[in-house]
Amino acid sequence: MDNKIKIWNDIIQRDIWMRNKREREVILASLPPTHSILSSLPIPYKYAGAFALIPNNWDFERHIVEYPLTDYLFVETPNGRIKSINKNGVEQGYFDKDRLMYIVGLISSIPAKNKDSITEDGFVLINSKLLRSFFKDYLSYLDYLLQTNVIITDGEYISGIKSLGYKFSEPYSNVPLINYQFNNIPQQDISGINTEIYDDETNTSIINPVLEYPYLYFWYGTKGLSIQKNEAIEFANREKQRKLDLGRNFWDINRDKTTSRKTVYKNPITQYNAAIHNIMAINMCQYNVQIDSNVHRLHSVITNIQKSYRKFLRYEDNPIVGIDISNCQPYILCLLLNPQFWDNSSNFNITLWHLPQNIQQYFGDEKIREIKEYLSTLDQQNINSYKSQASQGEVYEYMSNTINLNNNGYSLTRDDVKTMMMTVLFSDNRYVPPLKRRFRENFPEIYRLIQIIKRGNHRSLPCLLQSIESEIVLHRCCKRIWEEHNHEIPVFTIHDSICTIPQYVEVVRIIMNDEFENAIGLTPHLKIENWQIQE
């Protein structure tokens, strides 16, 4: 027996499960035949969406003949139908093909929604607590797929820290994926926007917050956003094969998981699976638009899909163009250097009190007082160079030049500095790798402010910066575009970028420039991204 399967069997206590199952089968066999019109309950659309992706060489009908369900954690009932059975030998729901396909589809849908979850080994972490909340008998389905070698597990589970990981087994791991549409979701019922969503922060279902803002959801509701499906799939296949042929050193780096001690790469096969899922979702107008309750960013299928696929996006046959803010987070950091942002009585364009309540709660009176006292001691001349370069979109070049000049024999590239900046902004104060030390040595005034803000909870700064970005992009820029131009300019957002069709680029650019300059106090450096031309 494969060691990983043995670990799985031990985790779910499969020996006990199968013994109780066999005892129950003896009882069921003694009962007279019955008839039933009951059917299994489908997984709600808010969890499953409308489709799952399955390997094109996996024949489900042949598979269940070769591996009968009742040889595993399912039993046949007196009415001739198949039910899952729990560890205590009690029947649960009727077997449902859609439910099995949903589990298979998680191998692509989870990384499709979170590209930073993709690691080198290709295993996809599946949160059992979340699954159990709406799919009580999921273990019977998951066990069947594992025991019949459709998927494999990494066998690594740490309670409260790491979920088990899964991926397709070797026969199915590097093959094209095909669309399986759930039977309970007709194509005509697919909405561009879900009315109800699962909220990761509260672990509950909530009304989709985006529905409060027509200037954010309207253009998704038209279902005019599309993708050149065939071209995008062909590109995905080429990219996967190119990376596999060139080897690991040419794989994309997962900057979210990479540290100074270890570079983590993204598995090209998992990236391919995620890309195909997002391509199919856009093609079916399943945009998955929602605003998270943490930093209040808008997430959608176009924020999830890799940047290299944006060249295939269309709105009513028009290409999509992005207007992007250069080094957005370092630029927004300039606002935090302004004492007026931290003053509740200030008339400044944007202050902490313009942001959602959960962001304000990171900053108690004592923390705000400490920040204001520190800012009052700063010589603004010492930080004006940083502000100027951030405004011009050249902060990374400025930092690399400064550090390299002050450190003989030490040379940082622009990518090194970008990694350094993300580490400084997002990591715990106690984590001080070499790049972070370089920043502290060369930009002590800014480093000290960042340190004060993050003291006690290092999430406070990234949440603050991203919430400011969301406030300006979503509720100032997009709202103004909507109101001033008679609801005629289609816009879609990718965090700090606003996308539209070519004829409206200049209008959107002017409004973005105005709103960011008014809010931050510095002119932003905006880039026009014609993805079709660039690629």
Short description:
By secondary structure, this protein is of the alpha+beta class. Helix 17 crosses helix 18 (414-426) and helix 21 crosses helix 22 (505-520). The protein is globular, with a radius of gyration of 26 Å.
Distance between the termini: 48 Å
> What does the largest sheet look like?
4 strands, antiparallel
Shape: globular
How would you write the strand order of the largest sheet?
17-18-16-19
Keywords summarizing the entry:
535 residues, alpha+beta, four-stranded antiparallel β-sheet, three-stranded antiparallel β-sheet, 23 helices, 19 strands, 47% helix
What does this structure look like?
- The protein is an alpha+beta fold.
- Helices cover 47% and strands 12% of the residues.
- The chain is built from 23 helices and 19 strands.
- The strands form 7 sheets. A 4-stranded antiparallel beta sheet has the order 17-18-16-19. The chain has a 3-stranded antiparallel beta sheet with strand order 2-3-4, covered by helices on one side.
- α17 crosses α18.
- The mean pLDDT is 91.
